[in-house]
């Protein structure tokens, strides 16, 4: 009688405890599953981010390559421009020197031409004076003859 009631009570108590433990385990398993799903999603999004980063890195490398090429081209253009500038400066100096020489020669020629013209004028004046003198002498002779 009494003994079996006690055993029964203990039996029910054990079953009750076992039920609680099973429920707790199930709860923990659900929790673990939820965590595992969350971790899997985090992992997937991390992988996606890594792929995106790789792609961005590739694009950056290509961009850097393009920029380097553009810089090299710009440097070439600049070098050519410098060379052209040197040529232009050289040519412009040469032209200036030639212009100066030509101007000097022209001035010298003008001076010598002016000197020649002045000499010719002096000669003509002298000739004119001689002719006047001769004319005066002739007029004098005619006057003397006339009287």
Note the main attributes of this structure:
mainly alpha; 1 helix; 147 residues
Description:
By secondary structure, this protein is mainly α. It is built from one helix and no strands. The chain is rod-shaped. The mean pLDDT is 93.
From the helix content, strand content and strand pairing, which structural class follows?
A: mainly alpha
Low-confidence stretches: none
State mean pLDDT (0 to 100 scale). 93
Rg (C-alpha, Å): 62 Å
Could you provide a short overview of the structure?
With 147 residues, this protein is mostly helical. It contains 1 helix and no strands.
Ordered list of secondary-structure elements with their pairings:
Layout: H1 2-146
């Amino acid at each position: 009688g009494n003994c079996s009631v006690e055993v029964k009570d203990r039996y029910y108590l054990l079953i009750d405890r076992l039920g609680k433990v099973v429920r707790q385990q199930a709860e923990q398993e659900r929790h673990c599953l939820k965590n595992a799903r969350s971790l899997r999603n985090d992992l997937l999004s991390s992988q996606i981010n890594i792929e995106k980063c790789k792609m961005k890195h590739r694009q950056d490398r290509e961009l850097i390559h393009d920029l380097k090429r553009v810089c090299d081209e710009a440097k070439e253009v600049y070098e050519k421009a410098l060379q052209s500038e040197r040529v232009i400066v050289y040519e412009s100096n040469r032209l200036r020197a030639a212009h100066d020489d030509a101007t000097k020669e022209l001035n010298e020629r003008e001076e010598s031409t002016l000197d020649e013209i002045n000499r010719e004028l002096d000669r003509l004046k002298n000739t004119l004076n001689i002719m006047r003198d001769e004319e005066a002498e002739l007029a004098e002779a005619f006057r003397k003859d006339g009287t």
